[in-house]
Every structure is written in structure tokens, then in C-alpha cells.
Amino acid sequence: MPTLFPEWVVPMAATLTDKRFVAPGWIFERKLDGIRLLAFKNADEVQLFSRNRLLQDYPTIARAIADLPAHDVILDGEVIGAWGRPTTRAADRSRRLAYHVFDILWLDGRDVTALPLDQRRALLAQLPLCPPLHRVSTIDDPEPWEHACREGWEGVIAKRRDAPYEHRRSPHWLKMKCEASQELVVGGFTDPQGARVGLGALLVGYFAPRQSSSLDFARDDPELAERSGRPEHESKGEGDDFVFAGKVGTGFNTKLLLDLRATLDRLEIAQPPFTKAVGLPRIRTHWVRPEIVVQVSFLEWTPYGKLRHPRLLGVRTDKSAREVIRERP
Domains, the chain, ranges and CATH? Predict the structure, then answer.
């Protein structure tokens, strides 16, 4: 009995990772900053759906799908503007939209989601995609994530060549976003666990001016400012808050773990130096004077002002802790 053409398929989703690697069993594609779109063509009928199954109205894309030399097909990709930015228009009246196709799920009566990615890509390569349809190409670079950042892209997607198309968030598709970088100050550390040596994670933060008040921001009255204990406006003095920004537990080698532990042990103090510290760990934790500056890469700041997926890049011996001031994360 022939397989019935599906009314819907759950799209495969990528898992965010802070790992960086290349391997023979993986390919890398540009992470597009657009609108996920699944295109269903069944004979003369074409339907376009968002990832949460809402019908989409892109007439020029629908016509291009209808012209494909396949009786029935399901494609997966993203819609972006021709200028490279996502669109928020309900319809592509300007005809400046492009559908970047990166996978094929169905072709001429056959469900191909169980095939390995390489075979699905071979099937997709046989379809003559004409603008506004475009095939997503692979990135040929020894460090594809660095290539993405140089190009100003959001990041890359790493995909296993032998993986089927899974209707879930899968570890066989990995999102590697371009990282931000920030100088931060160490205010504590946790004990190592298991086979780890030296320390578990650094507890880091930054200095930020305290919120103003009628007393301590009498900018035209230096005597009043001095009596309040606040530094002068825009100075980097002791009146600033030391804000907890999260834990950094990756990016170390054994030598650095041991060297940092020896240095931090000499700076240990009894109480946390952080003056703003939501979510500060309290178990197996040591506090230190905020003097050591580190460079940390991370994907983004969370809505709660914490680092997402931080990774240590190195220790900044050229920076003073009081230079690490950030108005708002």
C-alpha cells in the first residue's frame, strides 16, 4: 500500500552547544537568522508552514515550489530577506524574499527522513532550485565557527552525515553560535569534583555603579558625595557594586587549574565580595579578594544577567580589576 502524503511533520531542531570541533562525520552549514519554513507540495497544491504549524503566505516561494519537477515533495529551510535579514512581512509582496532549503523529507511518494543526511542531500541536489529557492551549501573551513563570526553570521549548524531526520531537538544537529567576550573579575571558586584538580569553577563578576539616589548623586556638591561614601560621578572607586555574573567551569588545562588555585588561595577571604549576587553558590565555595581579571567567552547574557555557556579564554595580567565596569549586562 502506498504511503499517504503527510499533512504535517514535526521539524528537526538543533541543540545549542559550546563545544567547537570538526570531524569527518560532520558537515557545517551557516546558521540562518530567518523564519523556519516547511514546504509541502502535493500535486498542484502547495502549503507553507511555520515550525509551529501556522500557514504562511509567501506567493513567489509557493509558485517556485509548485514549478519543481516532483509530484509531491516536502522541503525544510528558512525564509530570509534578500538583504540577508529575517522578514516579518505576512506576504512577500516586494518579491525580495528567499527560501534557503537545507533538507528534504519526502519525494514522489516516499518518506526519506530515515535516510542518512548525505543521501537526503544527494536527493535535494537533484532538484533544480531556482530563485527565490536556494540550496544551503556547506562551509569548507578548518574552523567554520570562526568563518561565521568573520562574516557577521549568527553562527553555524553542525550536522552528522549519517543521521536520519529526527522529529525532535537532536544532538545530531548542533548550534554553534558566535561568541561574545568579556573581561570579568574572580570573586570566588568552587572545589573540584571527581578527577578534576585545582578548582571546579570560577565565580566571576563585574563592577557596576550603584543606582543613583538623591543623596549620592548630588553631582554638584562634592562635599555631600564625600560624606555619602560614594565615589565621584563616573569614577571607579569603592562605591561600585560587585555583581555576580555566573560560574566559569570550562576552558582550563591541568596546569592552569593548579596555578589558579595557588594564586587564589593567597587571596582567600571569609565573606563573599559580591554585593549583588542572585544565585550565588554556597556549598564547597571559597571567596577571594576581587583582584584577578579573566577573559571569558560566552554565547549571550541571560535575562537574569548571567553568562550563558561561558568558557575561560585566559587570565588578563595587563588589567586591573577596577577597570572591569559594566553598566548593564
Answer: 13-177 (3.30.470.30), 180-323 (2.40.50.140)
